[in-house]
Amino acid sequence: MTASAGILKGYRVLDCSIAMAGPFAAQRLGDLGADVVKIEPVTGEWQRHVAAGGAKGNKVNVSFLSLNRNKRSLAVDLKSPEGKAVLLDLVRSADVFLQNYRPGVAKRLGIDYETLSALNPRLVYVSMSGYGESGPYLDWPGQDLVLQGLSGAMLSAGRAGEPPTPAGQYLVDAVTAYTAFEGALAALLHRERTGEGQLVQVNMLDAITTLQMQELSVFTVAGKPQTRSAEPHAHVYIRAPYGAFATADGTIIIAFPPLRKFGEVIGEPSFLAMDDEVDAWSRRDEIFARTRERLVTRSTADWLQRLRAADIWCGPVYGYQDLVGDPQIAHNGTFVTYDHPTEGRVTTPGFPIKFSKTPSTVARGAPLVGEHTRQVLREAGYDEAAIDALLSRGAVFETPDAAPAGP
Question: What InterPro entries does the database record attribute to this sequence (predicted)?
C-alpha cells in the first residue's frame, strides 16, 4: 500500500475518539487523503476489545478493522505527564483534533478546545457528544439505540399498539459521524479563507433529530400527528400502500403507487376509483390489507417485472448476501478489497464520494496498537533516545508486532 494522494493530502488529523461515530468520521477524513493519527491508550482503543457481531480477527477484530483504515496508531498514556506532553507537541502542527469523550473529560485531561487552541490557533477542534456539552442530559450515555428511541423515529413506522422496531443499522452513530465529517470539512474551508481555526460541536441527539427534517416539519408546521396504522405501514407520513409485502416466494417493497394504475396491475378493482390524496390516507389500513392479499399470489420476480413495466416504484428485499452480489454494486465499485498484514484479504464498504482527480484509496488497513508510535514521534522531532525513554517509562507504547517504521 502506498500513501494516499487524496484531496486532503497534507492535512493531519489527531483522532482521540472511540467506538463508532468518532472513528468513522476520522476514517472518512483519512479516506480523502488526510494523515490520521489515532491516539489510543497503550492497551488499545475500546473498540479493539469489543467485537460487533462477535466477529473476531487474527489480531484486529472486524469492528475496529472497519472503522480505522487509513490511520496510523500512536499508543500513549494521556494520564502521564510525559504522554500528555507528546500529544501537545503533535497538536502544535495538527489541522484537526477530533474527540468524543464524555463532556468534561477533555477539560480534566487538559486537552479541551481552550487549551489546545492556545497552542495552535489554526486548529479545527471537533467535539462529539451524546446530547450536547451541557444541559439536563449531560451525563446520559450516548448510545445508538437509546438515541433512536429518544429521537421519535421509531414511531414513524410499524403497527399501532406493537413495540417499535429499531433501525437495522447503527443509524445514529452513522449520521453523527457524517455530521462531524461535514463539520470538519466546513471548518477547514473557513480556515483556508480566514486563517483561523474554531470549535466544531456535534451531538448525536441533534444529528438524528435534524435528519428527520421532513417528518418533523410535517408535525411542527402542519400539525399532523404521528399516528401509526393497524397494518405495518412503513412510514406514518407517506400514503398507502407503502411497505414490505410477502409474495409467493419472498418479499417485495411497494412505494406509494398511483392507486388506479396499481389496482389494474395487481387486479384489485376497489383501488380503481380511489383518490390518491384522500383515500390513500384515510383508508390506509384497508389498502395495505388488500395489497397484501393480492401480492402473495405471485412470485417476487413476476411482480417486479409487471410493476416496473407499469412504472410503479418497487424493489426486492435484500439480505447482505444479495447486496454484495448485486450487479449495480459491482458496477459502482462500492466495496474495496485490500491485503491487511494480519487479517489477510479484506473486503469492506469503500468510498461513497467519487473524485475525478483525487480519488480515495486504502493507503493502509486498520493499525495494530501503537504500530506507528515510533514513526509519528520521529516526525514530531523526537530522537531515538527520547523515544526509547518514553517507551521504557510506559508513557507511550509500541506494539511488538509493528513492522520497522521508515524514516
Answer: CoA-transferase_III_domain, CoA-Trfase_fam_III, CoA-Trfase_III_dom3_sf, CoA-Trfase_III_dom_1_sf
